[in-house]
Every structure is written in structure tokens, then in C-alpha cells.
Known about the structure:
This protein is an alpha+beta fold. Helices cover 32% and strands 25% of the residues. It has eight helices and twelve strands. The strands form two sheets. Strands 4-3-2-6-5-1-11-12 form an eight-stranded mixed beta sheet. The chain has a four-stranded antiparallel beta sheet with strand order 7-8-9-10. Residues 166-171 have low confidence and may be disordered.
Amino acid sequence: MNNKYALAIHGGAGTILKSKMSPEQEVTYKKVLEESLIQGQKILNSGGSSLDAVEESVKVLEDSHLFNAGKGAVFTADGKHEMEASIMCGKSLEAGAVAGITTLKNPVTLSRKILADKNYVFLSGHGAEEYGALHNLEMVTNDYFYSDMRYEQWQALKGSDKTALDHTDDRKFGTVGAVALDVHGNIAAATSTGGLTNKKYGRIGDSSVIGSGVYANNDTCAISCTGYGEFFLRGVVAYDISCLMEYANLSLQDAAEKVIMEKQTKLGGEGGIVGVDANGNMALVFNSEGMYRGMVNESTPPKAFIFRD
């Protein structure tokens, strides 16, 4: 055991323009991002596990109406909220994932319960919620996830065949996620989202899919993604970054830049990742205007960023 740890988080990427954000809004967003970092850092600083840290950091973001995950989830075409989440352990390669969640307060916590169950990796819909209830996780009514901002975004699209990203006037993805290295040398990753506004047919993005929206392996890296899910699914983004490190001996930063800046851009995918490797190197890479993000380690205090500067 050593004293080295690292934590990186994101609250979504996309066309986040400084001209469209007031100083007060910027402070509000950064405050929640920093609180997410602080809660995760408390766990890491006291010798806790990277799994506990990423779960706790993501829960803070799920509990905020500002991000498209948990409380701030967007509306589906039928006026409800459907969430998905995943978590993965780099030491054991154990993983847990959920999709189609409508009445469970923290989807990432349900994912963590599934990770600990040797019988399952991925549960969906009513069965996933039944599993959560059996394990005494906090249940809520679907209207817990309501917010005026999301409702207005849905009203602009309601009745059409269009879907939208987090904001109707901006291309922004509010998916949240975290990656961490603990003092025991283990890494982990978690991702959570509410999907696309006005989505239909039980659409599922990359956030709950192991290898696409999340991946962790102590031999390479832990990755959490945010972006246009269909492109990240097709690119198997999180695992692709790990593969480039394992088979091509690229660094975390170089592998992430190749996948996000070259391969995803060529495919048409917009978004980004946060990543950490077993040496504590962090990468926060995005091909969009901005990404809500933050980082902390044993020698640097929590710091949140939004724009490219």
C-alpha cells in the first residue's frame, strides 16, 4: 500500500459555450462537481476502495438536478424517466450494469449490488428494480426525477420523431461518471445517465454497456464515457482505449486521444472520457466544445473545469 490515489469525474460533454452560461451558473455547476470530488476523495484518503469512491462520486451527481442522471434525468417520449448505469472493478474485472430504471433513486448503487453478485452482470427494467427492492435500496416514484428544465426540453420535442441530447439549444450530454485509483493500487470506473430527451422503444445508450461506456482493468486503465451513445457503442470506446494500451503499448493519454480525437471524430461521434491508469495518470479528453469535469489526487486539491481553458 502507498499513499498514491487519483479521482477524475465528468458531468457530460458537448457544445457548452461560455457565452451561454452566466457566472452564477458556472459557480453552481462547479460546486456540485467539486462536492463529487470531495466525497470520493474522503474515501480514497482514508484508504477506502476505488469502487466505493466512484460509486459515491457518481451518487453526488445523480442526486443533483443539474446533470442528466438520477434526479436530473431527461424525459422519454411517453413522459417518463428511464435511467441506466454501470460500474466495473479493475482488480477482478467484475462488473454490474442496469438499464430501464424508473423507480430507483441511485442506479449506480444498484449496479454496485449486481457487481457483487456472481450470478449477474446486466439487469434491466422491472426485474432490475425488483432486485433493487429485494436488496433494500432506496426506491422513489418516477416523478422524483422531474425538473422544470427537463420538462421544458421535452415539450419542445413532444409528439415528434426527434430526440435530443441534454439541451435542446446546445449539443450537451449530461451523462455522469467517475474513475479512481486507490492506495491499494486498484482502479475502478462508473457511469450513469438518463439517456436522450424524447427517446422511444426502450432505447439504451453506451452508459450501461460494459466496454462501451465503462471499463476498468488494473493492467491498463479505468474509463468512463460521455457522448452520443450510438457512436460510443459502435466504437466500443472504453475497451478500445484499454486495448490500445494493452496491445499497442500506448499511454493512457495517447490511447484516449486516438480514440476520441481520431476514431470517434471520423465516425461522427461527439463526446469525451475521463480515465486513470494504475500509476495514477489521469486523462480528460473530449472532442466537443467543453466537458463538465474535475480531478483530484493525493497532492492536488479538487478542481473542476467546464470549458477548454
